[in-house]
Amino acid sequence: MKRREFIGLLAGAATAWPLAARAQQNGPVRRIGVLMPILETDTEAQPWVAAFREGLQQLGWIEGRNIRIDYRWAGDFGRIRSYAEELVRLSPDVMVANGNPVVAAVLQQTRTVPIVFVQVADPVGSGFIQSLARPGGNITGLTNFELSMAGKWLELLKEIAPTLTRVAVILHPETAAHVAFLRVIQAMAPSVGVALTVAGVHDAVEIEGALTTFAAGANGGVIVLPHPVTGNHRDVIIRLAQRGHLPTIAPFEYFAVDGTLMSYGVDSRDLFRRAGSYVDRILKDENPGDLPVQGPTKFEFVINMKAAKALGLTVPPSILLRADEVIE
Fold first, then answer.
1. CA distance 154 to 166
2. Is 207 in a helix, a strand, or coil?
3. Which residues, listed in sequence order, are joined to residue 33 by a DSSP beta bridge?
4. Over residues 60-73, mean pLDDT
5. Is residue 297 classed exposed, middle or buried when 0-12, 13-18 and 19+ CB atoms within 10 A define those classes?
6. Residue 193's domain is classified under what CATH number?
């Protein structure tokens, strides 16, 4: 779903709940804690929570009627742990944790409150769950990227910008999934004729330093890995990529909308909508550790032709035909 469909979603969702909702009006109000690693004012914030509410609403859970949702928005990466502690103190019936660093923080605070994660990469390798089929403990959820996606990012970048000989990978070095993504990219790099520069970053200052230094060389491109640090500072990444004439591929559609050359990844709103079904099952007393982790089913490949023109790139028709959205 694109932003232009967002208003239609809100209008249509209002008619979807009556029968299921009436069946749940007589019970107690249940409490859900939601921890997001972005600011409430981020352009993606409200579409994500609207999709989550829609998923709940279709199953009869209506905010202000039979559920209460407590949101915390940790746009400052340093606040994630304190917000996780704050939400656990509220004794929610279930918590929704968005992203790897949020899940890590919530698990440090509780091993009893049920957790549904959204947009988490490599949850087994990250130590969050025992297996995808039976996650165990108090947690289950939805993943966003398989490790093989990392190779696809490099492949697409080289295909649209064949003269590239250097690629910077922007990642968060303490995130286990990023280490795994990097291994995939490193294994593929020789076959496509590029040398890699690993840029481990924790904030906007480190992003600026890494990309400014990298842009001093010729024939460079950038792969952005999924993380709150890169998502929250995408304006810095986009500005420096444009200034340094660096073709850039990112994991989420909103990067391309905001100005990167390309994005290839999952439909995040679909994941949030589907998270509502697991919250519903947990509120109906199912054990999260017995609910298999679900993978993404909807993917988005977006090309920004304005960015391509500014970079002097001609996008082959074969790539345009594969795109889900082309921004003119």
1. 11
2. helix
3. 70, 95
4. 96
5. exposed
6. 3.40.50.2300
Indicate the number of domains in the chain.
2
Give dist(CA 17, CA 54) in Å, integer. Answer: 9
Which is nearest to 243 in space by CA: 208, 278, 286?
Answer: 208
- The verdict on 33 and 85 lying in the same domain is yes
pTM here is: 0.87
pLDDT grade for 76, boundaries at 50, 70 and 90: confident
For 142, list phi and psi in degrees, rounded to 5. Answer: -130, 130
Residues whose CB falls within 8 Å of the CB of residue 229, separated by 6 or more in sequence, listed in order? 77, 172, 201, 202, 203, 207
Q: Average the pLDDT over 12-41 and give the result.
A: 70
pLDDT at 26: 60
Overall average pLDDT of the 278-307 stretch: 97
Q: Any alpha helices (H) in the chain, and if so which ranges? A: 6-13, 18-22, 45-57, 80-89, 100-109, 149-160, 176-192, 204-214, 228-232, 234-243, 253-258, 268-283, 305-311, 317-322
Other Cβ atoms within 10 Å of 306 Cβ, number: 11
